[in-house]
Every structure is written in structure tokens, then in C-alpha cells.
Design brief:
The protein is α+β, with helices and mostly antiparallel strands. The chain has a single domain, classed as 4-Layer Sandwich (Metallo-beta-lactamase, Chain A). It is 19% helix and 31% strand. The chain has nine helices and 19 strands. The strands form three sheets. A nine-stranded mixed β-sheet has the order 2-1-4-5-6-7-8-11-12. It is globular and about 55 Å long.
Length: 329
Amino acid sequence: MPAPTLGLSPGAVVQSTDKVDGRTQTVGDKGMAHTVQVGGVRCHILSDGLTLADGGGFFGVVPRTLWQRVIAPNDQNQVPCDTRALLIESDAGLILVDTGLGDKLNAKQRQILGLDDRRERLVGDLARLGYAPGDVDIVLLTHLHNDHVGGATRWDTPGGSPGPLVPTFPRARYLVQGGDFGDANAPNERTAATYFAENWQPLLDAGRLEVVDAPICLGRSVRTEIAPGHTAALQVVWVEDGGETLLFLGDACNWAAHFDRLAWVPSYDIYPMTSIETKRRLRAAALAKGALLVFQHDPQVITGRLIEGPRGPEVRAILTKEAWADPLA
């Protein structure tokens, strides 16, 4: 069943029923989704939990002396990384954007990522909104890297032990760009470590995966835009209704700092120069539309808006959290 109506004003961001009025607010409570009203469309920012990543991964060639002003690493040079998803209550149905890492990770993978033994992290966040996996109509996959599509399938066994794989969201159409699907099925030495067929082959076998070769429009308010750089066919998601706009950036711009500084490109990006131009284009469009930005991996800035700063557009944070605080703890 759907989540209860929260009585939000357009453009407001809330945690549970607390409105955020445009000033920066730091999240206090944990284990709760954050809800945004975009015109007549409600969007919920979910999390699959906090993981650890090498600081150099997110900041590439940027010297640590510079990027540690944004986030302080631990003694192993690791920084926290959120794995957010977006749930959209649209006229096209209930849409989930990305699925997190899921529960198929082995003990070594969990140790590397700093994950404990909790299960159903994203699904649990979904349940707190009153939804079950079977309620999801469409899953939009920004791309097929493991931290975005790992939760698309699950083991169909008691207790989640290894076994036959099935779609996590059994009724849903799963949509992905053909360029990304092609790359995932023919990885090279650099990309092979993050593509796992177990995340999408069961969807194909079940007739649930749809591979498209153009931007996607769903209903009157939701559309995707191809945003190459991180991968060749990454897609970002726009929600536009009633004069309000939300942009879910995915890996086109991992952290707010990457929008403030176009030259800061993660080492994960396969086409770094293309990433810069993509960010430039998205930044201009988001500024013109006054879009609310949702950052998928930023451990501190969940949402923000662009304003004109002394050196060009910069992100004004709206909803923030403590960097090392796990949102599901």
C-alpha cells in the first residue's frame, strides 16, 4: 500500500514529516527515507546503506591535500560512500531508480566495502514507506555497475542463502540503455570488475529486462537523459511537474564537490574528458530550471540546488548528514 500523505508544499524536502524550507538541514534520525514533492509528483530518496571506497577512486588525479578539505579519509585512505536510490510515485506507476548493491555479496566483498551482515537494506527502506517489492512497476537502471544493479536480483532461497536467482521486484519492467548493456556483456580489463551477469541475466530469463537505445519518457513527468562519461551510455533521471524539477544525477556527478569543480573527475569514469562536458551541460540545465539535485553517493550532501557563485555555479546544500553516519544504522 502507498505511504501516507505528508501534506508537502511544492519543492519541500522532508525527513518523515519534517519540512525543510530551503535552508540547510542536517539529518538526525536514521533509517528513514526523505521525501520530495515535485509539483504533483512525490519522490522518496532511499538508501542501500553506507560503504567504503578508496579516496582516490572518487577524486582521481586531484591531490589528497585538496580533496581532504571536502571529506576526511580514515587511516586507510577510505572515504564513506552512500548508495542512494529514488522512488517516484508517477502517473506511469511506481518507479524505482537503481537498486543498490543488494544481498548477494560474499563475506570478502562485504569486508572490502565495510558492510555488516544486515540484509534487505534498500527493501527495508522501501517497507518503511509502506511498499513491498511487488508494488514496484518500473525499475530504471542508470547503468549496470554492481552498486547500482546488484539489488535487481536476489536468491530465491530461505534466509537468502546462495541459490536460484530471481528478480527482486517481480512485477517490474527493468529498463536500461543498450549502450551500457553492450558494454556490460563485453567488458574489458578495466571494466570487468564491476559487471556481474548475475545482476541482469535472471531479468532477461524472466522476460523483465528491456534494452532501449534512446532517452526514456515515462508518463508526463519522468524522463531520462543520456549522460556519457562515467560509462558510454549512463542515464540521469529528470522529474518535472508543476514548474518544479528534480535531477537524480547518478554517477554523472557523484558528489556535490564534483559539480562545483568540473575538473574533479573520479578515476572510476571511463571517459573523463566526456564527463567534464556532460557535467557542464547538466549543470547549465539544472541551473536554468532551478532543479533540486539528488546526489547518489555523496556521504554528506543528499540534496542541493545550484546558485551563481563568484567562480561560477556552485551547489548550495539543502539536506545534509554526518559523513560517517550510516543512514540505515
